[in-house]
Amino acid sequence: MAEGQELKDKSRLRYPINGFQALVVTALLVGLGVSAGLPLGMLTEMLLPLAWVATLTAFIFSLLLYLKALMAPASALAPGGNSGNPLYDFFLGRELNPRFGSFDCKYFCELRPGLIGWVLINLALLVQEAELRGSPSVAMWLVNGFQLLYVGDALWHEEAVLTTMDITHDGFGFMLAFGDLAWVPFTYSLQAQFLLHHPQPLELPTASVICLVNAVGYYIFRGANSQKNTFRKNPSDPRVAGLETISTATGRQLLVSGWWGMVRHPNYLGDLIMALAWSLPCGVSHLLPYFYLLYFTALLVHREARDEQQCLQKYGLAWHEYCRRVPYRIVPYIY
Ligand SMILES: NC(=O)C1=CN([C@@H]2O[C@H](COP(=O)(O)OP(=O)(O)OC[C@H]3O[C@@H](n4cnc5c(N)ncnc54)[C@H](OP(=O)(O)O)[C@@H]3O)[C@@H](O)[C@H]2O)C=CC1
Ligand SMILES: CC(C)CCC[C@@H](C)[C@H]1CC=C2C3=C(CC[C@@]21C)[C@@]1(C)CC[C@H](O)C[C@@H]1CC3
């Protein structure tokens, strides 16, 4: 169990940290099913109807959550989803942490169904390719491997999601419910879907270069996220104690050396490099496999701007000083 950030009423919610176990249990159940004759590859023929059902589920779920939020106390509402405009509030989410007993709807949806569903769809596409062509292609192995690493990493470090703005600031409305339940599994698996219908020959040297790109992206992404998480948990931890910091009026400090001294969002940079590595196995003849990279760039640029606003509010002058010391946002010398 882990404790979340402090809420408006000074209380803290508790969250179970067992996302990685959920992934392992799902893998075991799917393995059992497949060995008992479950035709996993058939899933690939049901993607469109399943995407519709997921969207409808997200719609009904967020409608119920909106109705539930009408009875919630003011202290339980999200800062942005309480405008009084029902459509806007339904879309962004009125309540910050809707719960049924100890079951936290937003926390559950943020990582588990979407991320585990995504790698399950990828696996089904790999199995289907093996059935169609005798064995999965190198490109399909790479896409499956890279994205499984990403999902496994997110679930392994599940506790880190408790400090993201989705959990601490945003309500749970249609946008996030749709994003978590429908958008992630069905659009994040587009590269593997593309490969099933457009096989790409991949020579060993090209595959090795693509693996290197993914490794570099992962190294930056994990290094930056772990450095910040370690520092926030215990600034005197020997792994971060030697880093240069700026003090803020809130008593918290900001890192100005290490990964966070290179750009203001080194974790986004690593994430984008990995996104490129996931598209490259699909070749360069079609734009579709690059959809994730384009959408993700737009999402992270927007997210970075929102985070800047929140940090400026929290840290004021100290944030200005940080921006002066670390002038680039995501890509050194470019942006
Ligand atoms: N694949 C996907 O679809 C998505 C992936 N992601 C990934 O999720 C991860 C989490 O991203 P996200 O939630 O956006 O935010 P971040 O992990 O980047 O966290 C931002 C927060 O970090 C703290 N911070 C910022 N600068 C510093 C500094 N110099 N020193 C110490 N603390 C600092 C601030 O919070 P405070 O000071 O309060 O601690 C700030 O609000 C990222 O790796 C991102 O790439 C995100 C969105 C979508
Ligand atoms: C429907 C819209 C276009 C936007 C929906 C946004 C959501 C898909 C994303 C908002 C924040 C997310 C995070 C992740 C997945 C995507 C969503 C839900 C991660 C869980 C991905 C893995 C990382 O390690 C952590 C991320 C936290 C934020």
Your description of this structure?
With about 325 residues, the chain is mainly alpha-helical. It is about 60% helix and about 5% strand. It is built from twelve helices and six strands. The longest helix is centred in the middle third of the chain and has 30 residues, at about 205-235. The radius of gyration is 21 Å and the shape is globular. The two termini are about 40 Å apart. The structure holds NADPH dihydro-nicotinamide-adenine-dinucleotide phosphate and the ligand CC(C)CCC[C@@H](C)[C@H]1CC=C2C3=C(CC[C@@]21C)[C@@]1(C)CC[C@H](O)C[C@@H]1CC3. NADPH dihydro-nicotinamide-adenine-dinucleotide phosphate binds near residues 164, 255, 265, 268 and 307. Ligand L3PRFG4B binds near residues 110, 166 and 175.
Task: Using brief descriptors, characterize the structure shown.
single chain, 335 residues, mainly alpha, two-stranded antiparallel ribbon, two-stranded antiparallel sheet, 12 helices, binds NADPH dihydro-nicotinamide-adenine-dinucleotide phosphate, binds the ligand CC(C)CCC[C@@H](C)[C@H]1CC=C2C3=C(CC[C@@]21C)[C@@]1(C)CC[C@H](O)C[C@@H]1CC3, transmembrane, Sterol_reductase_CS, cholesterol biosynthesis, endoplasmic reticulum, membrane
Topology (elements, then pairings):
Layout: E1 2-3, E2 14-15, H1 19-35, H2 47-69, H3 86-92, E3 99-100, E4 103-104, H4 105-133, H5 138-156, H6 165-168, H7 174-187, H8 190-197, H9 204-233, E5 245-247, E6 253-255, H10 266-279, H11 291-315, H12 317-325
Antiparallel strand pairs: 1-2, 3-4, 5-6
Helix pairs in contact: 2-7, 4-5, 4-7, 5-8, 5-9, 5-10, 9-10, 10-11, 11-12
The protein binds NADPH dihydro-nicotinamide-adenine-dinucleotide phosphate and the ligand CC(C)CCC[C@@H](C)[C@H]1CC=C2C3=C(CC[C@@]21C)[C@@]1(C)CC[C@H](O)C[C@@H]1CC3.
Keywords: Cholesterol biosynthesis, Cholesterol metabolism, Endoplasmic reticulum, Lipid biosynthesis, Lipid metabolism, Membrane, Oxidoreductase, Steroid biosynthesis, Steroid metabolism, Sterol biosynthesis, Sterol metabolism, Transmembrane, Transmembrane helix
GO molecular function, one term: Delta14-sterol reductase activity
InterPro entries: ERG24_DHCR-like, Sterol_reductase_CS
